[in-house]
Amino acid sequence: MFTARPSPAPAQDAWPRWTHNDGWRMRASKAGRKGGTTQTLADLKRLRKEAEAAAHRAAAEASKKETARREASARGEFPVRASSSVSAISPSPVLDEQDRILFRRAVKSVQAIKDTRRAILPPVAHASKAILRERRQRAVGEDPVTLPRESDQYSPAAMDQGDTSFLRQGYGPDLITGLKRGKWLINASLDLHGNTIAEAHERLDRFLLSCLEHHIKCVRIVHGKGYGSKDGEPVLRLTVRRWLSQMTDVLAYVECSEQDGGAGAVQVFLRNTQ
User: Fold this and answer.
1) Within-domain flag for 173
2) 122 part of a folded domain
3) For the chain, how many structural domains are there in total?
4) Domain extent at residue 189
5) Where would a tag sit more exposed on the chain, N or C end, judged by fewer CB atoms within 10 A?
6) Please, is 145 exposed, middle or buried when counting C-beta atoms within 10 Å of its C-beta (0-12, 13-18, 19+)?
7) How many Å apart are CA 131 and CA 150, to the nearest integer?
């Protein structure tokens, strides 16, 4: 049994003649073609080098300008671009002509006031001068000026009748009546139990200054009834009430009711600092 095999391909009659460039040759464009140009590989390489050189020159020029701008900015100088027709760049107008026409049309019926006779007043302070001075001192880190030191032994003539209540001269008895009836709520309280005379005086001054700064009118001072003091004398009770009668910011005080402390506390009405 015979198997058919394909016959070998016939040899070509003539192979291309051997050349020095292996038969590869760049085909030149025809000169007669419309718009055609004759370019070789050398011309393309030359154009590429020229383009790269131009790009390098542009990058170097931009780098020089950026360096000069930074140096001028560091010296505080701001160079202005010069123009052939204008020496300096004039700012563009905020409103164009169309916007101006619309604005004039909108205010066409508005009439200007000839004389307003308006007085510009300074801003009104929301606190007294003493409180504002204290705030400024605290803002700069200085110690605020405390209230004047009161005497431990002095008592005004109004307290000769008794120390259960006090009313500053020039104010009506309605303050005392309002305090006893609970007209004003107690918004702050200070307990001086267990303090010495010096400690109680310092704490009372700071407490009243804080209440005045925060515009608190009615407060309670708990000084105790003096049962735990030496000889059974209510030293702190009498001294605290003497201090309160000497403070100009205290307008009145009354002894608290039994549910609020009785004889061991007083309800104080402070001056309005607003």
Assistant:
1) yes
2) no
3) 1
4) 157-270
5) N
6) exposed
7) 20
Q: How far is it, in rounded angstroms, from Cα 210 to Cα 190? A: 12
Residue 253 within a domain = yes
What is the distance between the alpha carbons of residues 151 and 246, in angstroms, rounded to a whole number?
A: 8
Q: How far apart are CA 2 and CA 180, in angstroms?
A: 140
Burial 46-70 (b: 16+ CB within 10 A, else e): eeeeeeeeeeeeeeeeeeeeeeeee
pLDDT digits (tens, 9 = 90+) for 199-257: 888 899 899 988 988 889 999 999 888 776 666 667 788 889 888 988 888 999 999 98
d(CA 51, CA 53): 5
CATH of the domain at 234: 3.30.1370.110
Which whole-number Å values give the CA distances from 170 to 22, 167, 173, 274, in the listed order? 127, 9, 10, 19
In sequence order, the 6+-apart residues with CB closer than 8 A to the CB of 63 are none
Dig out the tokens for 9 from the structure: 């391909």
Cα separations in angstroms, 75 against 63, 71, 88, 133, 220: 19, 6, 21, 43, 65
pTM, rounded to two decimals: 0.44
